[in-house]
Amino acid sequence: MAVQIESLKSIPYFSGLNPAELEAIRKYVFEKTAARDEVILLEGDTSDALYFVVSGVVKVFKTSAEGKEQIIRIVRPGESFNDVSVFDGAPNPTSAQAMGPVVISGITRNDLQNVLRDYPQVALNVNKVLAGQVRELMALVEDLSFKHVVNRVAKILLENAGNGAGSPPRLTQREMAAMAGTAREIIGRSLKALEQAHAIRLDRNRIMITDRETLREMAMMAPQARGRARPVGSAAGTTRDEGQQL
User: In angstroms, rounded to a whole number, what is the distance separating the alpha carbons of residues 113 and 108?
Assistant: First the structure.
C-alpha cells in the first residue's frame, strides 16, 4: 500500500523535512491495515520495524503472568510505537493491539538507519520523540504511585474525550481499569463518584462530561491535596460542557 506524503508530514519523526526529502524517505515506508483487536506486536517477540499510526488507535500494554493487563500508552494518528525495540534490537518490551480498524505505516530498522544517516534532522526529531515518551512514562508512574483511582479515572476521561480533531477511542470499563491499574469493579465505583460530583453523567453505555473544570481538578488532585482542594461538586464558576461524550 503506497504511503502518501501528507501522511509522513503528520509524523513527528519527519517534522521539518522539505517535500524532496519526504519523497526520498517515502520509498522506505510501508503501510498496512489491522482489524479491531488484532495483535500487531507481541511482548517478548522480536520485531525489526518502527510503526506509526495513520488512522485509528492502538493500545500498547504489558501482561502479567496471571494475565492482568496494564495499558502503557494509547497511540493515536501521527504517533509511533515499538521505538525501543527498533533501536536496541532487543525483544518487544510491550504488546500492541488495534482498538478498532487501523491503518499503520512502518519502517524497518535497516531502512531507518539509512534515513538517520542521510537526514540529520530526523535524528534530532527522534530525540524529541523519545524524550516525550519518557515523560509519558514518568507521568504514568506518578499517577499509579500517588493518585487515588478516582483521580486517575478523571484524567483518563479527559485525555480520551477528543477535541474535534478525530474520533477518540471508545474505552470499555475493562480498558479503563487496565489504564488505571485497578479492577473493573473499582472503575464502576469511581465513575459513580464522578457522577455524584457532577463532573460526568452516565447515560447507558456513554459517559457525558458535564463539568470539565471539576473533572480537571479531580484529575490533578494528589492525595495530600484532597483536604485543601475545593469540595468536589461545588461547581460555582465553572462552565458546563454537555456535549462531550466518551
Answer: 9
Among 143, 160, 165, 116, which residue's Cα sits nearest to residue 218? Answer: 143
pLDDT, tens digit (0-9, with 9 covering 90-100), for 190-231: 999 999 999 999 988 889 999 999 999 999 876 554 444 333
With beta carbons less than 8 A apart as the criterion, state whether 98 and 40 touch.
yes
pLDDT in tens, 72-111: 999 999 999 999 999 999 999 999 999 999 999 999 999 9
Task: Tell me how far apart the alpha carbons of residues 60 and 98 are, in angstroms, rounded to a whole number.
Answer: 9
- 3-class secondary structure, 194: helix
* CB-based contacts of 185, cutoff 8 Å, min separation 6: none
Query: Do the Cβ atoms of 154 and 187 come closer than 8 Å?
Result: no
Phi (first) and psi of residue 91, to 5 degrees: -60, 155
Looking at the chain, the number of H-run helices and the number of E-run strands are: 9, 11
Tell me the one-letter amino acid at 246: L
Rounded alpha-carbon distances, angstroms, from residue 29 to 1, 34, 89, 130, 146: 10, 17, 19, 20, 41
The set of cell numbers assigned to 67 is 494475565
Which of 144, 132, 230 lies closest to 179 in space, CA to CA? Answer: 144
| Residue 112: all three cell numbers together | 531507518
pTM to 2 decimal places: 0.82
What residues contact 204, with CB distance under 8 A and at least 6 apart? Answer: none
Residue found under cell 515506508: 29
What the block records as the C-alpha cell of 144 is 499509579
Query: CA–CA distance from 171 to each of 46, 67, 132, 167 (Å)?
Result: 29, 19, 24, 12
